[in-house]
Amino acid sequence: MKKTLQKLLPLAYGGFFNSLSYIAQPWVVQKAFTLFVSPRKGKILPHQQAFLQKATAELVEIEGLAIQTYTWPGTGPTVLLFHGWESNAFRWRKLIEVLRPLNYHIIALDAPAHGASSGKVLHVPLYQKIAAGLMERFRPQFAVGHSMGGMMLLYHQHLGGTESLKGLVVLGAPADLNNIMKQYKSILKLNKKVFNGLDELFKSDFNFRIDDFSVAEFSKSYTIPGLLVHDKKDLIVPYSSAEKIARNWKTAELITTEGHGHSLHQKEINEAIGRFMTKIN
Asked: What is the average pLDDT across 14-25?
């Protein structure tokens, strides 16, 4: 029953949006966008609290939002960790266990509308503004992003990046907004009127169209050293995304895994991240 409802609910939303798109398109488009950027989960769960409580917690205000950060202090280079959609800082626990003995100064955060941070929505342009504010404050030498967090870091680099950064690590990141939006359109069965309206919204609110936003294309100009990690059997973000980015990002190394899925928590991956940063530093 629960699975049936999960399948029917998106179709109900889509049918509602489609039916009203002919009489109230601006309102419908805004509602469809709000649904797209509103996470349903990602708050701190009881079993996650014990690990996060071991860190030094600090709320940082950026863009009118209270962003929860967690610091595991070290005397080495600073590393900033950016999680993906419907996740939180706890997802980095296994990487932190590998990096702490190497004495890195580690800072993780809960993105807006996730974990213990405030807010109701999250999208890449907002996430990038949060990242820019944190990087200005903490001046990291390395940044690591998973999934949406990785896509955001590549967008941040496109906008000029951060001078203190020596290297980027991108795990399981999408290459293009177009594929994400096509999937959203397919799940909700949105008609062309709603989808075209969303394209206009991206242009008016963020100054790019859906087809224009490609971190794979942006990567052509990058000279910063990078490490890409992607699994061939990733069911969330296809492996072809990593291939597209790797073809264009000439100073990045691609590590291909098989059977590790989208989360990429495995010890050998975390150790490879440690080796990458140690080599550059």
From this structure: 75
208-241 pLDDT, tens per residue? 999 999 999 999 999 999 999 999 999 999 999 9
Share of the chain above pLDDT 70, in %: 96
- Strands (E) across 50-91 are located at 56-62, 65-72, 78-82
Q: Helices (DSSP H) in the chain: which residue ranges? A: 2-20, 25-36, 46-52, 93-99, 124-138, 148-158, 177-188, 192-206, 215-218, 239-248, 267-280
Chain position carrying tokens 């999250």: 122
The residue type at 159: L
Other residues' Cβ atoms within 10 Å of the Cβ of residue 112: 25
Strand order from edge to edge, sheet including 252-257: 56-62, 65-72, 105-109, 78-82, 142-146, 167-171, 226-231, 252-257
Closest CA relative to residue 157, chosen from 143, 147, 171, 146: 143
- What is the spatial distance between Cα 209 and Cα 15, in angstroms, rounded to a whole number? 24
Structural domains in the chain?
65-84+115-138 (no CATH), 165-281 (3.40.50.1820)
Measured N-to-C along each axis, helices 177-188 and 2-20 cross at an angle, to the nearest 10 degrees, of: 100
CA angle 108, 259, 185 (to 5 degrees): 70
Cα separation, 11 vs 4, whole angstroms: 11
Residues in Cβ contact with 53 at an 8 Å cutoff, skipping those fewer than 6 apart: none
Q: What is the pLDDT of residue 39?
A: 96
pTM over 0.85: yes
